[in-house]
Amino acid sequence: MRWSGVFHRFYEELSTQRPPDILLVHAGGNNLGLMSDQELALDIKRDILQLHQHFPSMTIAYSCINERKVWRNGPPGKINRDRKTVNTLVRNAVGNFGGVVIEHPLLRFFNNSLFLPDGVHFTEEGNRIFLSNIQAALKKILQ
Prior knowledge:
By secondary structure, this protein is mostly helical. It has one domain (about 5-140): Rossmann fold, CATH 3.40.50. The chain contains 4 helices and 3 strands; from the N terminus they run αβαβαβα. The chain has helices at about 5-15, 35-55, 75-95, 125-140; strands at about 20-25, 60-65, 100. Strands 1-2-3 form a 3-stranded parallel sheet, sandwiched between helices. Helix 2 packs parallel to helix 3. The protein starts with a helix and ends with a helix. This is 1-alkyl-2-acetylglycerophosphocholine esterase. Its EC number is 3.1.1.47. It is an enzyme of class 3 (hydrolase). It holds the Pfam family Lipase_GDSL_2. InterPro entries: SGNH_hydro (IPR013830), SGNH_hydro_sf (IPR036514).
């Protein structure tokens, strides 16, 4: 899913229920290379800040865009730099209102055991690491 669809989907789901206590967002990677890193970061920051203003009691957790072996929309070096820029700018914005940032430092592009042959999706081990990071953050939020 691309970033523009994330909050549209959230508000669709919200129409039938109350807002969640915690909203975990892991999106934006599919936009890299299709728009500038600055534009993507500004879009994400704007939308997350708007959500925080509309639902101040909801904890927003931003799961950083992780490394991949393959990026579909540009040269890997440039896309990885853009990924780091987006993560830094969004990390700062989320931190300003007390949101949570989930990092994925062990998901490294050069580790063949973490990615399926397509270079994007995780193997069982990669998925375990990814979900463990999210689980740890959720446990911390709930304490």
